[in-house]
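Can't paste images in this forum, so I'm doing it all in text. The chain is below; anyone willing to post the predicted structure tokens underneath?
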Amino acid sequence: MESVYERVKHNKYRKGLICSILLFFLLLTSLALFVLIQNEEEIGIAVCNTEQCFSTAKKIDSYLDRSIDACENFYQFACGSWIKNNPRPRDKQSFSIRSVLTENVMEQMIAFFETKISYNDSDALKKAINVYSGCTDIDKRNDIGLHELKRLLQNVIGFPIMIKDWNSNSYNWEKKFVYTDLKLGSIQPFFRYRVDHDKETNYSTYSIHIYNTDHSVGKELLDQNRRTPRKEREYQDRIREQLKILDIDVSDSQITRDIDDLIMLKIRLANASLIKSRNNDASDAKKMSFYQMESKFLNQINWFKILSTIFKEANVNLTRDEKVYVEDPYYLTELGNILKNTSVRTLANYIALEVVNKFGVATVEKLRKLAKDDNENETLRKFCYTTTERFFGAALDYIYMKKLLDANVLFQIREFIEHLKYSFKLTLKQNKWMDNEARVKAEFKLNKIFGRILFLSSITDENDLDAYYSELGFLPSQNYLTSYKKLVKWEKIQSLQKLRQDANSFNIISVPTDMFTSLKSKTIEIQIAAFQPPFYHHSSPSSINFGAIGNIVAREIMFGAKIDDGKSNSKINESRKNYAERINCFKTQYSEFKEPNTGLKVNGTLTLQNNIAENVGVQEAFTAFKIHEALRGKIEEMRLPKPMDDFSMEQLFFIAFAQLWCNNDSEEEIKYKIESKPTPPDSIRAIVPVQNYDEFAKAFNCKLGLKMNPQKKCTL
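Text version of the structure:
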């Protein structure tokens, strides 16, 4: 039997144990409350409550479909509501968040164009508006333009179809090539050339590159190397319609013979352009002097005479020792034989029709409308704006900056660009898989990518801009063809003079309308109009902007980058040893991916370069964001307010990335892109790169084995 002492002792022990347990839970609860309070205070401090942040949060949230699990289908999660609320217009096959922005900017600029010219407007702007006004004047373009075009074809170019008793004795196709290239907008029949960066000098200088011309018509006339009567009839009908507009009165039998000869020439040229691919030759361009070209290509083409005559017009002297890049030696070998064995009449008709299809379509509205089935959605206003922007791109960017953007917004853009460039430079320095050549090339691209914006935004005096366009003189709106001839010649001289310029210096030569304009060196120049949602959000957390426009930059500077193969390094790590296996991983992964709308599989080989660039790009952009965050601290890395306050900085980065690709293409368009484009459909571009990235799974807490966090990932 237990004594009183023992009972008292046990009771004290039980009371002590209970008190200890209570005290422990009290301390644990206090600690939990303290952490919760601290977190709540931290979250409260980190929320951005500005008007712009509320606007950004509302816009990004309006694209999300929160009913979708981000770990199962991140594209639908990020873009589901945008797709639902933005049905594709009936007249369009392709429709995306990017095309909507492009259309909006174009309409904004067209509205600006269609206002009356102010006395205080710069000369550059007045010239641009005159060109746009002349282009939209249909009556004058058809009247004066058609008359001038016929005179040009008959008296200068030489068009046997429209000239009775045409004499071929004095005809020289090489002289006509020089004329159409210099005077009519770089019309280059039979072969093309361009002034482009020289990779042997790390892209610091320029050189001449000679390559195939566009033989898409000839390829269309072939079906598995056989002539197709239906396509040939369509081609004949198209030419007859053009001749009808030109009011050419020639016997039908002669036209038929001429067109048949043209078809044969186009097929021969198309076959010659396919030799390299049929031989499975993926070799790079060959660099050789004009002397070496003459000995290698034993044919009737005087390469040096043609090109030296053209460049002399821009006060650039060539010598026979000048090194040029030959992109396709097979084609150039065959080209001389084809031209030698083709009648002069057929060569003359070929060149004249090139003038009709390019210069004529650009200057005569009736010919443009006939050809508009190639781009039936392009209205006259859009066509004329795009043409004007081609020549006055620098002026229009300047106008957009100075007249349509708030000065504070422009300051923020410049500041963000500097931060972005600095973060990417540090990212490239710590990159361990790129070889030295790739790193140099990437840094070159990074320096060029924002050159246009930084240069134009620094101009304070419009006289500087006017001086650039002063050589054009007066551009009459009443005679669009005359203005167009002046513009294309001026543009040509600018491009030729680049050959002797420093490639690292910035040249404000005009570029096309696209927000992200691909240069021939596979770099891009980002235009100022791209600095708006979804690419850039003013006065918002930089994680969003690194996720959006930062990813565009990363993709471009990584495109075509070579991995370090270890030849210059004895300590070869595992990723370098297994480079081929890693590349095959990407090929297999994308080839097995089914596009959800069509069920078609992607061509992992065709899209390989882009796929690698996008996978590596999103990782490099994320690393650059983290470097930026570490350097700048948490001050500006605030969360968005409601309804986006439940997303972390890392999650916002990936959401911004995915929303670049919100898209509502038709099934026909998706099928076309899968079969012929070197990039996969947009939904796949949003999904696969983050599937392969552990930081995405970590940000969204996706368990291993879920669709967005697969067991097997492809990485470099």
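Residues 4-45 form the longest helix (42 residues). Confidence is low (pLDDT under 50) at residues 1-10, 21-45, 506-523, 563-575.
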